[in-house]
Amino acid sequence: MPAPESASKIPVTVLTGYLGAGKTTLLNRILSEPHGKKFAVIVNEFGEIGIDNDLVVNADEEVFEMNNGCICCTVRGDLVRIIDGLMRRRGKFDAIIVETTGLADPAPVAQTFFMDEAVGSKTKLDAVVTVADAKWLTDRLKDAPEAKNQIAFADVILINKTDLVAPDELRELEARIRALNPYARLHRTERANIDINEVLGRNAFDLDRILEIEPSFLDGAEHHHDHDHDHDHQEHDHHHHHHGNGLKHYHDEEMQSVSLKTDRPLNPDKFFPWIQDLVAKDGPNILRCKGILAFKDDPERFVFQGVHMILDGDHQRPWRTHENRDSRIVFIGRNLPEDRIREGFESCIA
Amino acid sequence: MSDTQSHLPSLADRVRRVDVDATIVGMHFLGGTPVFVLGEEALLYAGDRRIGIHAGAILSSASDGTRIVTGGDDGKLFEIDADGHRELASDDKQRWIDQVALGPEGAVAWSVAKTVHVLARKGEERRFDAPSTIAGLCFAPKGFRLAIAHYNGATLWFPNAAGAQPERLEWKGSHLGVTISPDGKFLITCMQEPMLHGWRLADSKHMRMSGYSARVRSLSWTADGEHLATSGSEQLILWPFDGKDGPMGRQPKILARAESRVTVVNCHPRHPVVAVGYADGAVKLVRIDDDALILVRESDGSPVSALGWDAAGQMLAFGTESGGGGMLAL
Q1: DSSP assignment of B12-81, as one string?
Q2: ipTM score of complex
Q3: Where residue A317 sits, what CATH number does that domain have?
Q4: A62 touches chain B (CB under 8 A)
Q5: B chain contacts of residue A118, beta-carbon cutoff 8 Å
Q6: Chain B: residue whose CA lies nearest to A65
Q7: What is the pLDDT of residues A94-120, one digit of tens each?
Q8: What's the CATH class of domain B2-18+85-305?
Q9: Which of A2, A177, B111, B252 is most buried, by CB atoms within 10 Å?
Q10: Is the pLDDT of residue A151 over 60?
């Protein structure tokens, strides 16, 4: 008997990063590691460096608006087509890696997995991995909105080419990245040298893995652990986060994160209309959001995530006896109306 | 409804089973022989003779009953008939041949990214560049016209009318498949959203056909041309095209309700009967007049991905994503 179709969705990792940051170096490193895995690789048409892999597909990055009146509901039309084609060769690869152009916006890539039923039923978005050039990212954050988007959107960020900058420059850059995205896992690399387990198999878009929402911190030169595979205790237990680690605190005028928390239960009849209205109005500016929620008289925790206007949520598991029933939400976005968001959230308290 | 499925009259035990280790992506007939198009490399004749064609995935296929054309991710276009198979075209950069179509008088069309090529049996190859990647192709039933689905609409191209401007039909959004009604009056596209869009060609009047639970990926015209059968819902949806206004202001017929979504439809070539494949693996025959159902294949969890009738309508063949095929002589 054939295995049920739903048994295994193919994970898809998205590699972004500004021109010259080292995406292709990372890609070739992933492909050449002796992991025994086979990948299908989707690259942009204009890549200069060769990719050493059997299954390489050229994409043309066609971003299509959905016909639903929402300008931020975009999908990558080429991915819809290519993934459909690749799935005919199921069994020839274990995972898909999508390398975007340096100027690409990661959102349409991510949204494709939520908006297209055929893509979403056969594959799952694993994580958005952004490669940043340690020497040039600070400049690009000033002059290239794409670079800022890629950092803000990322689940994993590699600060690459660290050998080309002084330690204090590196700390400065990390603080700038943290100002845009306090939640991504940050790694320092030279020549994109990293344990591929830090890049693949992250389950960053898996609702079941949204367990804690705490800022992630660089504790040491590179991340290496993740031994607690049940993830019930996040490894970053720093309570004085923003001011710990001697990190400078930066504020980006345009891109910020807003984090909300309450220990009082929420009223779902108030919360859902509020969040839907919020993403309907501010969706174009909200890059990502995530939340863990405690509703009144609900024994289960509710988790959700979103990309622009698309929200995806579900009950996850019963609250544990000694667990604090806190509700937390984070938003990363552009010019977020923090006061209005905060007020709206507080009005959802039961 | 799975509990009622067992009470349906069933022809399942008369099906000759075909099991292959590949996704079945297309179903055609050459003469009376059923030909299963596999997701990779090969065609399977009558369920037992495997002929390797492509060096990779088979992305699209079409047939007119005497020949089959296939496009692959190896950048090649093949023609297969009773005499064997031969390469018709090859992309010099080995780009994917995404779409293929067969037309009147032996014409074949295929697309690579934004470019469509047409080769008439007599005549030279012609090409046309669409505004974006081509996601659907079909020839009009009469005349030498090709419909092309793309982003923000469809284009009707007359390959032999040198200098004539292709006719652009505009509608915002991504159009992922196209068909023209057998009377040549309506052009219908499947959209990225779970809906169809249509144009009456005489005056480009728009029609929207919505209410689906998923993207519509399979379309088939009934033998009399009066209905368009569609997948994409937990029932068979048939849009009426019997009047001059087509489905404008009218409700579709809704038949063969199930808990599982319809993935493929194919109308009987002579009678008002539709073969319907579901996401749970069931295949049913549906009589349009009274919604009478006959079970052809029990559900097994693997989505039905291909269905085909022979020209006389005496044999139905089908296949699933996990290679569960079958042939039923009626």
Answers
A1: GGGPEEEE-SS-EEEEEEETTEEEEEESEEEEEETTTEEEEEEEEEEEEEEE-SSEEEEEETTSEEEEEE
A2: 0.92
A3: 3.30.1220.10
A4: yes
A5: 214-215, 217
A6: B173
A7: 999 999 999 999 999 999 999 998 999
A8: mainly beta
A9: B111
A10: yes
